[in-house]
Amino acid sequence: MSIDGINLQQLAQGLSVPTEQALAILPQVQRRPEAMGSVNCRFFGAHTLQNKIAKDWDSLDEERQDALQHELLRLVIKHCVGPLPVLNKVNQALVVYALQVIPDRWENFLTTVVDELLRMAHETGIDSVHVGYAVVDILQLFPEELLNISFASNRIARLNQDISQSLPMVFGILTNIARGVTDPEISTAADTPEYVRQLGHDPTWRTRAWKAILKWLQYGIKEEKLFIPLVDMTIKQLCVLAAQQLGSTTLPAESQVTDDEVEAAILTLDDMLSNDTMARRFGKTISTLVLEQYTQPWLIGAISRCVSEDDDHAALQWCLPLISYGEVYMEFLVNNITNSAVSRHIETYLQIMLDLTRFPGYHGFDEDISGSSLEIWYLLQEALAEYEPETGDAEADKAKLEQTRQSVRSVFLQVFKALITKATYPPTSTWLDGDKEDKGRFLSYQREVGETLATTYYVLRDEMLAILVDEALTALSTFSLENWQPLGAILFALKSIGENVPDTENVHLPRLFAAETLSQRFLPLLQSSLDADTRTAQWGLISIKSGLLSLIRAYGEWWKSHPELLPIVVPCVTSSLNQHSLVSKAVEAFRSICDSCRDQLAGASDSMIQLAREVLLAGTTVPPREQKRIFESTAVEPLISLVIERLHSDVALLESVPRGTSFTDLEPYWTPLLNHLNLVDSLARGLEFADDIEERALMGDPEEVDILVQAAHCYEGSAGLREFRRSLLVLMNHVVVSEVWRVGHQDVDIKLMPDVLLECLLSIVNSISRRGPHAFELPFGQVTSLIGEAWSGLVVMQNTGSTVYAQRWIEQCPMFLQSISQLIKVFTGKVNPWQPTRPGAEETDRIFGAILTRVLDDTILGIAREADDVVTAVDQLPNVNEAVFDLCTQSLQTRPNLFVHISPPALARICELSAQALSIPNRLALKPTAYFLTALTRLSNESQSEGPVKQLFHMLWRQYGQTWLQTAIGGIGGTHPRSLLANLSELLFAMVKNNPTMTRTWMSELLARQGFPSAHVNDKEKQLFLQQAVSTRSYNRFKAVVTEFSIRCRNLQGTAYAT
What we know:
Keywords: Nucleus, Protein transport, Repeat, Transport
Family: Belongs to the importin beta family.
Number of helices: 50
Number of strands: 4
Strand order of the largest sheet: 1-2
Structural class: mainly alpha
Pfam family, one: Importin_rep_3
Strand content: under 5%
Subcellular location: Nucleus
Shape: flat
GO cellular component, one term: nucleus
């Protein structure tokens, strides 16, 4: 194909990889009539016009702006008979124009634009129905644009006033089109415009009219004379639309009601009923309309039709306005549920919601809408709880309150039964054959049902519990795997209300949890297995066992009030720990009992010791993670001897290893040790000591404090704990120091220890330390010696030059530093009166000072070995650098005196490393360094330099402060990313606040340098920054000053970042 000798195919090929010849020919083709007349070309032309009006309005003089009005109206008339996408774009341009000039230069835009378009259409002989297309489109676009544009405050009131004058006309047009085909008065009335009559027979334009009404509602309609009739009209029209869909009335084929039209009308009503503002102003009037007109047989028929056709989406659509109504007007419903004038309608409304809740089928498999009404029952319960009649007569108020409660209770009884049905699992074959997505939807819905059951319990209380217990006992006595689902639903309901049932309940739960029931029903079921291991039967049995364990877990506090049942219920739980599919549920139930009944478990100690023994035995089916959870929960003194027994066995096993055994061959020896040490860690976390007991007592009855603390004191001094502490230290010392772990490498003895084992040992030290030094009374000297020995092995490993060992040093070093930080926090904290053997504060500081000297020296030297220069090494080892400065910061905040005992060379290395790390534009390196320097700067206050500690920090500041300051200002000036500005600002603020004199002097010298910190700022700007920085006392203001200076240094004024 060619135009004027131009081959279009060759032109397209030339434009695919643009050539000069093709680009020169393109404008000629674009200006051809054939191109200008295409739909795409006209569409993009209208789009360009719209954008130019919106973005370049101020570039037009007023005369051209006024002339544009007539031109836009002419374009609308021209394109209203063409493709609708082009008309829509032209209409958008007109609306955007109108919003620039109304109301000052175009009053009553909406009214005048309709009249003007009809006049111009009449003059040009265009059928008015085409103008109707433009009118409806403009009436829909105008509120959309109003919501997207911000107006000056002095213009909003005048704009709203101008729009409000046209709203009766707007809603008159739109509502007449929306209901035109079904309302004979509109179709036959002489004053109905022809275009309204014709559009009212077109379902597409009726749908557009509903959508336009919705847009105006979203914009905001405040006049009662518009809003209330609109609600009334919409409800009546939905009744008519439902009759059309149900076949009660018929329309010509071209005017038939469509699903899109129904959906648009429903969404419009839903928006009106969701309006909180209108509910507060006209709640009673709107409620009367909804209850008297919407909850009618026609709605029931529409929903029933959807159910019969398995159309979940349509059923939910019809109920959506009612759900929104209930969410906003629930207080009205409760207040009037006994009012004879509307009670019948309220009952119908609640019945519809109930039918939605018990929608037939299994959620996720057969239906997906029954969960949409669950929120209604929560709101109903909340409204009932807050309901207080105010008739002025106390006796009448009391009677009305009781009557209201009874009415709501009767509803919740039906809700309760419906929820039990909906919580029931589908048939086993359906479940097992279902896909993952279906099961996920069902389980998510079931959780929501559980929350609604808990809400229901607040209304029904004992009545609901009595029903559940009776049904549970009946189902347990007649249980069969062929029909396990009803029992599963009852157990789920009982579990769901567990947290709400008071632990003092002694009427119904004692029947369910009677010793006979636990031993003859619960325990046999939990211990049972299948002779014929079919997939279907197996799933049913597992589900029931899981339900029983979840039920036991949910009533942890109730077991605490009934300790006589613990010796029976604990075996029910522990019997499931050897079943792989139930171990997680069993552990959760076991932990719930232990956490709630720690003080009452003496009666079940035999079962717990037996459980722990089974866990410790080789070949147990309990996974290691669950074993740890069990030991943390069962942390009571009778178990200590079991742990000691296993630790002695581990030590003996280690001693049997021949010297020189290779590292690979050592794995069978350290793997069981690791497992048992993890259990020790869990036991250390779970043991409850005096400080915990005292805290618990203070939360309850203060009179129990002395008794509990005294009991805890005796508990901590028990022989079992002393033996446990001794054995633990022996084992840890053996693991760290023993020759068993020495192997030869390049003629150097290296203490080679698995990473996970070392991590576990350090975790134990941290767990014990967090409880305070009195927890296990670990001797301070032995703990520090132990850490020192392990550190020596780590340093030797790093010094070998081996890449493998260097990598292990990188991984293990941060763990060591974290443990030392934790020990400093514990052993330099407040003196605990229960540990008189603790060394004095001065001696503790000296020991930790020596440890810090050695550890920090070794680490900094180790960092330097990893690269040719320290900066590169720090950049490559951010985790080690972070651990170093986290340790230093923690030490400064916990015990600043320690730094007096760190050797001067080590202090110098720390300060030099900090200056180098601060210069690295990397968050991982800079952030911990900046925190450390900020903490140190706060301690170096020049006005408080008395005492050796203050003098030390002030000396460090005088020696290194200018270097730190120069690096910080350089980073602010552009050497560091903008994301690090907050850290640098905080550091600079600490410098200015704590050492203002020296900081000002140094800043003056630094800023006087040519081109520092940036060539983009002149001397005047630098002096202004200096003056503002040193005189500002508010950190927020200081940060703003730094940010502004940084923007200037980076030459970012006027950019998005600067704003």
